[in-house]
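Trying the structure run again after the queue cleared.
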Amino acid sequence: ADAATLAAAGLVDLVALIIAVTLPHALAPQRAEPRPAPPLGGFAAATIVGALAWFVMTLLMARASPTLVACGVASAAVGGVIAWHLVAMYAPAAIIRFAGTEPPPAVALVVGLVTLAAAAALFWAGPGATLIGVALAGAGVGWSLANAGLMQWIYGAGAPTRLMLALHDFALLTAALGGALIAPLV
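Done. Tokens:
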């Protein structure tokens, strides 16, 4: 089981690399005319929603190991649960990429956020290791879909400036750090 988990995680990493280098925008020629930046209000809203998703994800990830150990899961098995969570985080992107069609941004975003919220609720209510593992997988899928919807939302409205992207990344990473730092307190 551990070998299968490691193989699956390695396969997901490989697929993520293939996706990254074969995305249409990576292969498309540069546009002659630059696109305008997206409206600031929509960009800020997308950034706030994205930060919330990153906060919840890192909060759950940081709480996962101690919660699983408290449920009596052996340390080696905890790594397996986390590995399957990572597979769940990137599998939706692989499926979407190889399906050749993207869900509408609103659909990906709403389904992702609802899945992430439901997974978080299950994580906190889950009385056992199995439910916590399912919750972590669901959180990974929800996070992935929410991010896919957010990226479509942001880039569909225009080409963000470097400053906008820097602020967006800073907000997401700050939220992720916040989730990790708050995790031991909850």
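The first helix runs from residue 2 to 22. Worth checking whether this holds up in the mutant runs.
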